[in-house]
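We emphasize that the prediction below concerns an isolated chain of 83 residues; any contacts that depend on oligomerization or on bound cofactors are therefore not represented. The input was used exactly as deposited, without trimming of termini.
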Amino acid sequence: LNKFEELNETYGRFLGAALERCTIEGEIIYYVWGSGGYSGVNYYYDSNGQLLEEYSWDDIVEPGETGPPFNLSEYQCEVLRST
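Result of the prediction step, given as a token string:
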């Protein structure tokens, strides 16, 4: 929730920020993101609130650049807060 509030301060006036709870086979992660349209950040936390990974992105794809660490299309996600 703290990270959502922080990102909302930065991205709330652009495309926004959100806090989502995502589950797969009993595993829960919390996904917090902020987007300015051309760039943004993603944070992934475990059910205890410990940071698992963070990922920042922009429109420019560099050679060898990898995508986000979690494939959220495999998860069932529920938005808990959003701007």
